[in-house]
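Internal tracking record. Fields below are filled automatically when a chain is submitted to the structure queue. Please do not edit lines marked as system-generated. If the sequence contains nonstandard residues, flag them in the REMARKS field before resubmitting.
Queue: standard
Priority: normal
Entity type: single polypeptide chain
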Amino acid sequence: MRTKPGRLHSTKVRLPAEEQAVVDEFATVIRKYRNQGLAALARLARVAFDLSVRAKSPRRDGLALAMARGLEARQQLAQAEGGSLSSDEVANLLGIPPVNKSLVT
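SYSTEM-GENERATED OUTPUT FOLLOWS
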């Protein structure tokens, strides 16, 4: 989903503090290198993940590596289809007036 520069798409998922710290660190790196393109970042994340898993475990975790490859594949597919649009962008394209989100509960 596209967001304004410097902002992340927020989710309603509550994570344990340790997991949130990891997500925050990933988000910082993604924002820092966003100009590389999302597909390139997904590929680089997969490479880093692959190297980290291989370095720490003699037996590679197939499921975790498959999930990392899936992230890269999703980004490549999204880019091939022209990326994604935010709900505001879709509304604008359809000629639907913007909604004052502060009034929506």
